[in-house]
Amino acid sequence: MIGFTLRRLVLLLPVFFVVSLVVFFIIHLVPGDPIDNLLRAGSSPEQRLQIAAKYGLDRSLVEQYFTWMGRLLSGDLGTSIIQGRPVSALIARNLPFSLELGIAALLFSTLTGITAGVIAASYQGTRVDDVITGFILLGSTVPSFWLGLLLILVFAVWLGWVPVSGARGWSSLILPTIAAGLGGIALVARVTRIAMIETSRQDFVTLLHAKGLPPFIIQLRHVLRHAMVPVVTILSLRIGWVLGGAVTIEYVFARPGLGSLLIRALNQRDYPLVQGCLLMLAMAVIIGALIGDIVQAAMDPRQREVRA
Questions:
Q1: Which residues, other chains included, contact 123 with Cβ-Cβ below 8 Å and sequence gap of 6+?
Q2: What InterPro entries does this protein's entry cite (predicted)?
């Protein structure tokens, strides 16, 4: 197991450099210039050149990339061009809000999705299964930002039960959690249902029924445990979503976080800040996939041989 984990960690190195290349060059190829947000009306071309030289924007993209990568490897994400503050400080200030929303939405979608999938699989082919499957289909097609606006209109504006926006107390977390977690519920429930149905057709389940075990014991103690491997795969991929998937939700609910920080930086073409945010989100996805591989290998030793 240790060797498997070490091999996975080594494979992250080339992935990290590829991700850094993509993040850097994509933002620099986007039309726009951060200098335009710093110059005052009537500024001379000489002032523009001075600002470009100050932030290293007068160099070639290759030189800028290796300069940024050198600082990155030493733990320096650079300084925000527009705000004039270290990128790491800005990320550290906004990261707790994103983690709060992401973890709440992940727990909500995981617990609700697994419960719905177990119920649907246990009552396969009945009206209960049809109703849950319908909600799964609905949840997988409704855009999260549209659902967020609808929730604000009904529960915040019309009923006044919760705040419209911001991050003031636990009540302001309810609507964003629902809006961000609905799609996850549909995905987790669908995977759980399919995995449990396939597992329930195996010979050992027939043997358990022949021994006279109660159906709910078979479903919860045996079938669900064997069906969790594909569910863990989905959940591990959603770990990265803890940081990155709620970008639009943070913007809709005017919450502080990496999503709001990234959108503002994109509008201002703040290269160092955009690069830092995107790299953070990308690494969250990569680390989530790594955790999923390790957990799968621990649950099913055959995975170690397949992925060796």
A1: 129
A2: BPD_transp_1_N (IPR045621), MetI-like (IPR000515), MetI-like_sf (IPR035906)
Could you give the angle at which helices 127-141 and 87-122 cross, rounded to 10 degrees? Answer: 160
C-alpha to C-alpha distance for 196 and 226, rounded to whole angstroms: 8
Alpha carbons within 13 angstroms on the beta-carbon side of residue 33 total: 12
Residue with tokens 């994509």: 26
Please report the DSSP string for 81-97 in residue order: TTT-SBHHHHHHHHHHH
Q: Which residues of 271-289 are buried (b: 16+ CB within 10 A; e: fewer)?
A: bbbbbbbbbbbbbbbbebb
In a structure prediction context, what are the per-residue pLDDT tens digits for the chain, which is 308 residues long?
Answer: 677 778 878 888 888 899 999 989 888 887 777 777 777 766 778 888 888 888 888 888 899 999 999 999 898 998 898 888 999 999 999 988 888 888 888 899 899 999 999 999 888 889 998 998 888 888 778 888 888 899 999 999 998 888 888 878 788 889 999 988 887 888 889 899 999 999 888 888 888 888 888 888 888 888 888 888 888 878 877 776 666 667 788 888 988 888 889 888 888 888 899 999 988 888 888 887 787 777 777 766 665 555 55
Side chain identity, residue 141: T
Closest CA to 240 of 185, 301, 298, 285: 285
In this structure, which long-range contacts are made by residues 80-86, counting pairs with CB atoms below 8 Å and at least 24 apart in sequence?
80/265, 80/270, 80/272, 80/273, 81/34, 81/38, 81/55, 81/270, 81/271, 81/272, 81/273, 82/34, 82/37, 82/38, 82/265, 82/268, 82/270, 82/273, 83/270, 83/273
Residues 102-135 as b or e (16 or more Cβ within 10 Å = b)? bebbbebbbebbbebbbbbbbeeeeeebeebbeb
239: helix, coil or strand?
Answer: helix
| Burial of 189: CB neighbours in 10 Å, binned 0-12, 13-18, 19+ | buried
